[in-house]
Amino acid sequence: MGIFVGRKRELETLDELWRSPKAEFLVLYGRRRVGKTRLLTHWFQNKKEPVRVIYWAADQDNKESHLRQFSAEIFKCAFPRASIPASFSYADWNEIWEQLGEMAKNERLVVIIDEFPYVLASNPVVASQLQRAWDRVLEKTHIMLCLSGSHLGMMQKEFIDSKAPLYGRATRIMKLAQLPFGITKQYFPNYSAEERVRLYSVFGGVPHYWKQIDQSIAVIENVDRLVLSGGLLQNEAITMLHESVKEPQNYVSILKAIATGNRTPKEIESHTGIRVQHLTQYLSNLNDLGFVTRRVPVTGTATSRLGRYAITDPFLRFYFRFVASRLSQIELGQTLQVSEELRRHWVDFIGTHTWEELSQEWLIRASNQSAIPVFPDEIGGTWTNDAQVDVAGINYMTKEIVLGECKWTLQREKANVLESLVEGKTARVLPKQGTWKVFYLGFSKEGWNENAQAYAERLNAEVQKKNGGRFSEFPWKIVGMRLLSLADVDRDLALWS
After folding, report:
1. Could you give the CA distance from residue 77 to residue 84 in angstroms, rounded to a whole number?
2. How far is CA 241 from CA 5, 99, 122, 405, in A?
3. What is the model's pTM?
4. What string of DSSP letters covers 83-139?
5. Residue 2 domain-assigned?
6. Which of 474, 394, 387, 402 minimizes the C-alpha distance to 438?
7. Is the pLDDT of residue 114 over 90?
């Protein structure tokens, strides 16, 4: 099964809900394979105190089968020494909720229904039946009800949207994200930081994928084995789409377009032939599923015309960039050509996506740890028509901004990268209103050469002296600069995750 790592906060939340003296209703959602089931089962199987639990994983079956299956699990909990009658089943879900209410009347009962969207897909009225049962009965018991699901759009529609039947009933809503990069140091001790970044660029933080990794061979060999050579994950991306949407062909085309650098609706339209007016719904569905997001500059607004679409899931991003267009080659066993293509472009791929995201994650965690002198509350990137800054964070209330450059190259970076950021790009991306305090960051895989370090030292020395100098002449106030290498980011993210 593999070791269980991370999820400390999530386990603490489950403990908190279990210890609560009142009824609790947890909604847990996240992408397929992210570890929802493992989190829940690990929690109740490893508690020191005995937990009275009913666990059932729904599947893509009909409503009659669902009713029989769940009824059997309830019977086993209520009568653990008795044999389940072959024909046993509650008449409907109203009876099920009533029975669970009786079982939880005087003592804690944990009820977990995994992949609850399958239940709703076969029997939509279950949502309104649960709503009535919760309001009339369950809320007054000692039940701890947990409903989990991978279909993000349906979970949103049924539990989170203000018009949802179950809106406001959940006492806790938890989105289970992928494991952070910082955990890789513990999970993959045999790999260097650079190898772990390569691994994360393909497999992200999905525990199911991590379990398949053989640490005795290089990451590229694992990619060949698992994705390219008929391995366990070769059809994973297409399976995810087939399970999530009807008629996935257009979705495949859109994901291919975005993965190859077409990030605006016009660019996607040009690449796919799908008219913009139709693209909107497709992109909205992909966003609901957690596959795609629309990013805007942190210095802009949500409606900015500079918005760009991006594939948020690392595995899907990798698959549609390197694999999806070469399936014929792979089917013919010509995996060497595909592998060589990956080797040629892997550095650029990591620099464009993974390294930027890890640098942004470092900024988030550094701010939470008070490891930098400013406190941005929006973090991402920022750009204009003529300038791009890879890492940016902003706090409009305090008029503070962080601007950072990311470089994933084979050499230590030079001072000109920092000069371009401070003396060129800042003026182009800085909001026009007010006087801003600016803190600079530099992220380089191999670190920074002597000239770059000297530039940062001069800047920080002037800031410390507060008595004028070259860096005081700008119409913004410079707070300081910090330079980091991969080794620094790896150490900090491991410590802070």
Report:
1. 11
2. 28, 37, 19, 34
3. 0.91
4. PPPTT---SSHHHHHHHHHHHTSSS-EEEEEETHHHHHHH-TTHHHHHHHHHHHTGG
5. no
6. 402
7. yes
